[in-house]
Design brief:
Layout (H helix, E strand, L loop, with lengths): L2 H8 L11 H10 L15 E2 H11 L2 H5 L10 H6 L9 E10 L4 E9 L5 E5 L6 H9 L7 H14 L6 E6 L1 H12 L2 H4 L2 E7 L6 H4 L2 H6 L3 E6 L14 E4 L28 H15 L3 H16 L6 H6 L1 H14 L2 H25 L6 H17 L1
Parallel strand pairs: 4-5, 5-6, 6-7, 7-8
Antiparallel strand pairs: 1-2, 2-3, 3-4
Helix pairs in contact: 6-13, 7-8, 12-16, 13-16
Length: 385
């Protein structure tokens, strides 16, 4: 069974009968992708998920939403199942905030779910389909504190002043990174109220964050959940323990939480596979070959070519894939010689890092006769010297 089956199977079990668990966390982190900006007319006013569903249904055809190819666009369908059972019925949504700034390279959204049993879950949205959102992700390779991360800290401090009681934080993808960052660097009084932080297949941090006292103090409260072929969740550093779960998808498509397999109250456990290890080691080796200036220059060069297409989202980019690919190729040809060389060298370095990782995995086998001959030749050369 996959994530969405959980609601059909366990939706009649109240949170009092079966306490909040890791699957509930993923559901609420996934729901953050819904456009609550059009559902909450007054962000600071508490609105039930039943009302949210009614408002969404008036604006959208649910049948069309079900046909969407991308799991992010299907997130609002969760509301349909959640209102039907005792587990989430009556949940309130409040304090939705969304900030999108193309110039600052910032894509941020978060909200608070007030559950029937009194649980307060602060959900941070992950990377959406916008070019800007993905560019912010790449900034993390050379920037310890992105605009979205700073917004996450500010948001948490503000909502904590308005919402009483203990807090659980979580998010999917970049949202998980924001949840950890906010929990680590929020006000001390807020930190004391945080029970747990869920990072659902989100990236880690640069070393200066991982070495900070704030992050290290938070480690016991962090739960990382990643699929067996995790790619996003293995990027950068994160020393908190990882729970590896089984997915019905393959490769990068395991980032889609709706493919994660569930049991009664937890995900089906798995072991990280070889490809996930390969990606982590290859990208880590590759990044080590570049300083921050080189990483920044590479990101700016790549996204300058993508932005030449004038597509605002990767959906728009894909709708004119042939044309946009041609524009990128032309853009590459128009780059200054040093930028072309820089990009070519970076891609070559990535290929080399991948090759070295593969070779490192191959057992080194030496035939006994060859080993003896090599030792004899070495001794002869030593005697001659």
């Amino acid at each position: 069974m996959e994530l969405m089956d959980y609601l059909k199977w366990r939706n009649d079990v109240s949170l009092k009968a079966a306490p909040f668990n890791e699957i509930d966390n993923v559901l609420l982190s996934y729901l953050a992708y819904a456009d609550f900006g059009e559902l909450l007319h007054e962000p600071k006013r508490r609105v039930s998920i039943e009302t949210c569903l009614k408002r969404f249904s008036k604006k959208h055809d649910l049948a069309n939403v079900r046909e969407s190819k991308h799991f992010i666009e299907r997130a609002p369908l969760l509301l349909e199942d959640m209102v039907r059972g005792a587990r989430f019925r009556g949940t309130k949504v409040v304090h939705f905030r969304e900030v999108f700034d193309k110039e600052k390279v910032q894509q941020f959204a978060a909200l608070v779910f007030l559950l029937p049993d009194g649980t307060r879950y602060v959900s941070f949205r992950g990377t959406d389909l916008s070019i800007t959102g993905w560019k912010e992700d790449f900034l993390m390779s050379f920037t310890a504190e992105t605009e979205g991360a700073k917004e996450a800290v500010s948001y948490l401090n503000e909502v904590a002043a308005c919402v009483e009681g203990d807090l659980i934080l979580g998010g999917h993808s970049k949202g998980g990174n924001f949840a950890m960052f906010a929990a680590a660097f929020c006000d001390d009084a807020v930190k004391e109220r945080i029970l747990k932080v869920y990072n659902n297949d989100g990236p880690g941090f640069r070393e200066e964050i991982v070495r900070s006292a704030a992050y290290r103090e938070l480690l016991p409260k962090i739960t990382n959940i990643v699929p067996q072929t995790s790619i996003i969740g293995r990027l950068l550093s994160n020393e908190a323990a990882h729970t590896v779960v089984k997915s019905t998808a393959a490769g990068i498509f395991q980032h889609d939480v709706t493919t994660w397999e569930v049991t009664k109250d937890k995900f089906v456990r798995a072991e990280p596979d070889a490809f996930s290890d390969f990606v982590e080691k290859s990208l880590g080796t590759w990044l080590e070959t570049m300083d921050d200036e080189a990483r920044k220059s590479l990101v700016e060069t790549v996204f300058s070519m993508i932005e030449m297409t004038e597509a605002e989202t990767f959906v728009e980019f894909g709708e004119n894939l042939f044309k946009n690919t041609g524009l990128i190729i032309k853009g590459f040809g128009k780059l200054p010689k040093e930028k072309r060389s820089e990009l070519t060298a970076a891609l070559g370095g990535l290929a080399e890092a991948g090759r070295a990782t593969v070779l490192d995995k191959i057992p080194k086998i030496t035939l006994p006769g060859v080993e003896a001959k090599s030792r004899s030749e070495a001794e002869e050369r030593s005697g001659e010297n």
